[in-house]
Each structure stands twice: as C-alpha cells, then as structure tokens.
Specification:
229 residues; single chain; five-stranded parallel β-sheet; phosphoprotein; 12 strands; four-stranded antiparallel β-sheet; Sig_transdc_resp-reg_receiver; OmpR/PhoB-type_DNA-bd; 21% strand
Length: 229
C-alpha cells in the first residue's frame, strides 16, 4: 500500500459480504476498511476521512440512513448505498439523506466497482466552466466550483457532492430544459436512462435546501433552473 490510494469505508454487518467487498476493492487499488454497525461507521468515517463510503441500509446500532445523515452533517462524502431489495421508498429516502448512488443486492463486484469509480471520477473532475476569475452567479445563488461552496442570498447552503454537481450543471445551463437522460450523463456519467428516480430524488433534495422557486419541472421532459441572470 502506497498510502495515496482512495480510501473506501465498507459498512456492512454481514462478514462474508464485507470481506469480499473490501478484498475486491484492495485488488482494484483502493484502501478499504470495514465497519460492522452504525456507531462504528460514524466513528470510523470521522477518524479516517474516507473518500467514499459503501453503506448497507440494514445495520445494527442504527441503520444506514442514520449513518448517512450523521456523516453528511459533519463532512460531505460520497456514499454508495447497498439495499437488499429494489424498494422505491427505501431508495428515495436513501438518496434524500445524501447518498450519491445505490446498488441493489445481489450485486456483481464489477458493477459495484464501476459505480464507485464513476462517483469518484465525478467528484474529482473540474467543473467545465470553472474560471479563475471567481464563482458562478445565478440570481440569488453563488456557486464556487473551486471550494465547492454554495450560497443563497449570502447564506451558505450545505450540499452533498452530487447535489453540488447537479446544481452546477443546472446553473451552467440555466434557462435550458435538461432531460433526465442528459442529467444522468453529465452528472452521474451514466450512459443509459435507467436512473431517472435518482435525478428526481436529488432535485427534491435541492428544492428542500435551496427553496422550491428555482428549479422548474417540465413534466415528461426534465428540469430547468429559472433565475434572473
């Protein structure tokens, strides 16, 4: 281990699954550690500061949703959730508390690793329109791509990494209606349109944090940021 590998915290109470995921991540060039319950996950995330968390929903102590809430309240960190069933309510709640993506059990290791790499690639890449001159401004919003900070009417708004990327995409294309497929491609690096509810859930989270007046829904099409220039 060279010491500069991306750090992945695997939060899973089933030892066989946890070890299999951690071993595969290590083989793929990541540094991986395991936490087996909710309290241990929050404590390890605080001390180790992972670059990404693979987080099971069902955990002893408290569940993965509460882990995600507590971790995101302290430090924005990408989260890929593992859910035992393709239940829309569970997925939307998980995405709503700050998860960036999800994988439904049973899953292939190849798919999980691909999702992890996609999330990390999104977080690390520079914003296309980020300029040295300063932040982007759109109506009451001020977005600084360099520090990944957002303010509305001068007050800072805490966003998860994916929420920030989604908002930045909408700001760069303000006044233009972006389809869910386009948002999935530009924000999530997904080549297909199978994750439309991921987009919808993150838009709901942005409205909850920024107010309901900025992002317009074009039914059957997608979303548009509607603010004065």
């Amino acid at each position: 281990m060279r010491g500069n590998e991306p750090r992945i915290l695997v939060v899973e109470d089933e030892p066989t699954i946890a070890r299999a995921v951690a071993d595969r991540l290590a083989a793929e060039g990541f540094a991986a550690e395991i936490a087996a319950d909710g309290p241990a996950a929050v404590e390890r995330a605080r001390g180790w500061e992972p670059h990404l968390i693979v987080l099971d929903v069902m955990l002893p102590g408290f569940d993965g949703l509460e882990v995600c809430r507590r971790v995101q309240a302290e430090r924005p960190v990408p989260v890929v959730m593992l859910t035992a069933r393709d239940d829309e309510t569970d997925l939307l709640v998980g995405l709503g508390v700050g998860a960036d993506d999800y994988v439904t059990k049973p899953f292939s290791m190849r798919e999980l690793v691909a999702r992890i790499r996609a999330v990390l690639r999104r977080i690390e890449r520079p914003a296309p329109d980020a300029a040295p001159a300063g932040p982007l401004r759109a109506g009451p919003l001020e977005i600084d791509p360099r520090t990944r900070r957002v303010r509305r009417d001068g007050a800072e708004v805490h966003l998860t990494p994916t929420e920030f990327d989604l908002l930045a995409c909408l700001v760069r294309n303000r006044g233009t209606v972006l389809t869910r497929a386009v948002l999935l491609e530009q924000v999530w690096d997904w080549a297909d349109a199978s994750g439309t509810r991921v987009v919808d859930s993150h838009v709901k989270a942005l409205r909850r944090k920024l107010g309901p007046d900025l992002i317009r829904t074009v039914h059957g099409v997608g979303y548009s940021l509607e603010v004065a220039a």
